[in-house]
Write a structure and sequence with these properties.
The chain is of the alpha+beta class. The chain has one domain: Roll (Nuclear Transport Factor 2, Chain: A), CATH 3.10.450. Helix content is 43%, strand content 32%. Strands 1, 2, 3, 4, 5, 6 and 7 form a seven-stranded mixed beta sheet that branches.
Length: 186
């Protein structure tokens, strides 16, 4: 009788373990759909729709450690500022992958890999940047988001633009100082 009881218990535990494992990884879930909506809202610059997927206390870490993370309000400000610099941006559809995982500790994360494509308004130069985003969900809302990508090409080009603008402004000042009107002569 004990053997039968242990066999029954083993079967129940085995079935329960299998059911848990099925939920540990998927490529279709409400959380994935939510992150897809975040990406679409970002592409369309619909900040209100984007923010609706985050918890009010969400912490966002884009290329920084957690202690330097941003609040949701800071994220919205950053996105709006970026929108003034880029004439357009999107993620390449055929290059996007999503997966949801549940960790051993029961935390739910959605991972996204994609290619971001954006055009810098000042130069009309288009950049294509591999991107990885991991969002932790609690009760259907993003509570933490980690993003990793390399902005060095954009930053170097923006720095060169600033230097060119600075040199141009200095040259204009020099030209203005040598004219008779600038020297006080009439």
């Amino acid at each position: 009788m004990k053997k039968l009881l242990f066999l029954g218990l083993a079967i129940v535990l085995s079935v329960a373990a299998c059911q848990q494992q099925e939920k540990r990884y998927t490529q279709q879930s409400p959380e994935i759909n939510s992150l897809k909506e975040v990406i679409a809202s970002y592409e369309n610059r619909d900040w209100e729709a984007l923010a609706s997927h985050y918890a009010d206390t969400a912490k966002i870490m884009y290329n920084v450690v957690e202690e330097d993370g941003k609040t949701l309000a800071q994220l919205m400000t950053m996105h709006k500022e970026d929108a003034t610099i880029f004439s357009d941006w999107k993620y390449v559809d055929d290059e996007s992958e999503y997966e949801m995982v549940v960790t051993d500790k029961g935390k739910t994360y959605v991972n996204f890999w994609g290619l971001w494509k954006g055009t810098l308004a000042a130069t009309n130069k288009t950049y294509t940047i591999p991107t990885h985003i991991t969002a932790q969900f609690v009760d259907g809302k993003i509570v933490k988001e980690f993003g990793y990508w390399d902005l060095s090409k954009i930053m170097l080009d923006m720095q060169a633009l600033q230097e060119a603008d600075k040199s141009s402004a200095e040259a204009s000042e020099m030209d203005g100082a040598t004219t008779p009107e600038a020297a006080g002569e009439q």
